[in-house]
């Protein structure tokens, strides 16, 4: 049976799994089911969740099963209490050498982005970074991972197939939705703890302390509605309309986002940027004000359940996506629109 491993990141401060773990497990489960429909040998997969740390809250492990894990392994040791790129990578390799998998999916978080290239280099395999789509397909009589990601400055989407096992990819948070299923109460048979045989106490770098830099952190977590402003809202003088949009977002319990063009002009802080080099979001409703719909922006917003786009150009790129379209030249019109939709 084939194995899809998902590296589940532990928030060391609270000993719980980060939300992106559940998103990736849900995607892995969906791929497992889709693979069964392919008429090809080796179309049977199981999903293995792998976490690294000293301890883990058991509720979090249960949630991983409900999101899609068939098995869960916590690689544990005292030396893994705090994140260390060397220790975590070597711990993963030690476990993996005895328990190989065909596919490994890592979160493209700051920690995931550090350990995934180290692990894949040691395993002498490839890594497709920042994927926006993952699929199992048949190629030359085998089931392989097809990873899609933006390329050439995000002008094109490329689907990449790795020639070597394990086939590895990183995926940014909020690229896929987490989906929880009812599971039986007893999952203990599928939960394992792997004690490191070769603890790593000597590393070149050591984490001394962690602190939160609030200004650099995007705050779109759990956002149901996002009001995003693009360059079309700029009046050529100041950030009046962005302030208004932000105020409106606060008032209705939504989050405020923006395009990179607006961020680069210092009209809005970087942590509001949505897109390829910003944050990927997954709200119920995404309202785009004066946003042209460049692919680099849309890769971060296109999976929103509903998109309303307001633009003065009826041929704007954003209207090519599945959106509710409103064409207007009147900037103030946007406030009326929002009030209407949220009645
Ligand atoms: C490697 C790379 C990475 C990038 N990463 C990102 C990213 O993460 N996020 C991101 O957003 N961009 C990113 N970009 C930039 C991206 O290519 C676009 O330049 C950017 O998204 C455009 O922003 P915009 O839609 O606000 O501006 P514009 O493209 O200038 O569009 C403004 C829109 O407003 C409309 N408009 C004008 N006046 C009005 C009005 N009165 N009422 C209504 N509509 C009006 C116009 O018709 C137009 O469609 C990246 C680019 C590169 C090369």
Which helices and strands, and how do they pair?
Elements: E1 2-8, E2 10-11, E3 16-17, H1 19-36, E4 45-53, H2 58-67, E5 71-76, H3 85-98, E6 103-107, H4 110-122, E7 127-131, E8 133-139, E9 142-151, E10 156-161, E11 167-171, E12 191-195, E13 225-229, H5 240-251, E14 255-258, H6 260-264, E15 285-289, H7 295-298, E16 306-311, E17 324-327, H8 333-341
Helix pairs in contact: 3-4
Flavin-adenine dinucleotide (FAD) binds at residues 153-154, 230-232, 259-262, 273, 275-278, 290-292, 294, 296-297, 300, 310-313, 316, 328-329, 331.
Provide a concise account of the structure shown.
The protein has helices spanning 19-36, 58-67, 85-98, 110-122, 240-251, 260-264, 295-298, 333-341, and strands at residues 2-8, 10-11, 16-17, 45-53, 71-76, 103-107, 127-131, 133-139, 142-151, 156-161, 167-171, 191-195, 225-229, 255-258, 285-289, 306-311, 324-327. With 343 residues, the protein is of the alpha/beta class. The radius of gyration is 22 Å and the shape is globular.
């Amino acid at each position: 049976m084939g194995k899809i491993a998902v590296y589940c990141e532990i928030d060391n401060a609270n000993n719980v799994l980060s939300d992106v773990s559940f998103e990736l497990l849900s995607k892995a489960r969906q791929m497992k089911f889709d693979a069964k429909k392919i008429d090809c040998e080796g179309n049977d997969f199981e999903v293995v969740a792998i976490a690294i740390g000293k301890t883990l809250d058991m509720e979090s492990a249960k949630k991983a099963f409900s999101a899609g894990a068939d098995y869960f392994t916590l690689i544990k040791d005292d030396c893994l209490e705090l994140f260390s790129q060397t220790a975590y990578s070597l711990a993963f390799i030690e476990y993996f050498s005895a328990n190989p998998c065909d596919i490994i999916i890592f979160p493209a978080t700051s920690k995931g982005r550090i350990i995934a290239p180290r692990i894949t280099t040691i395993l002498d395999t490839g890594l497709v970074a920042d994927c926006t789509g993952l699929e199992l397909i048949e190629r030359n009589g085998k089931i392989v991972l097809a990873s899609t990601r933006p390329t050439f400055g995000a002008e094109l989407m490329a689907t990449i197939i790795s020639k070597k096992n394990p086939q590895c990819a990183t995926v940014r948070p909020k690229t896929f939705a987490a989906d929880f299923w009812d599971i039986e109460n007893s999952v203990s048979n599928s939960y394992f703890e792997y004690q490191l045989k070769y603890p790593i106490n000597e590393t070149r770098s050591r984490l001394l302390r962690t602190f939160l830099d609030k200004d650099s952190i995007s705050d779109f977590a759990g956002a149901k509605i996002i009001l995003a402003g693009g360059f079309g809202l700029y009046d050529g003088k100041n950030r009046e309309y962005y302030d208004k949009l932000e105020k409106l977002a606060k008032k209705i319990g939504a989050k405020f986002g923006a395009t990179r063009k607006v961020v680069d002009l210092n009209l809005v802080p970087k942590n509001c940027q949505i897109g390829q080099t910003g944050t990927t979001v997954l709200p119920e409703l995404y309202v785009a004000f004066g946003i042209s719909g460049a692919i680099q922006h849309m890769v971060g917003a296109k999976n929103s359940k509903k998109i309303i786009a307001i633009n003065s150009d009826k041929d704007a790129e954003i209207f090519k996506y599945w959106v509710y379209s409103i064409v207007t030249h009147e900037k103030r019109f946007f406030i009326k629109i929002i009030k209407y939709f949220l009645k």
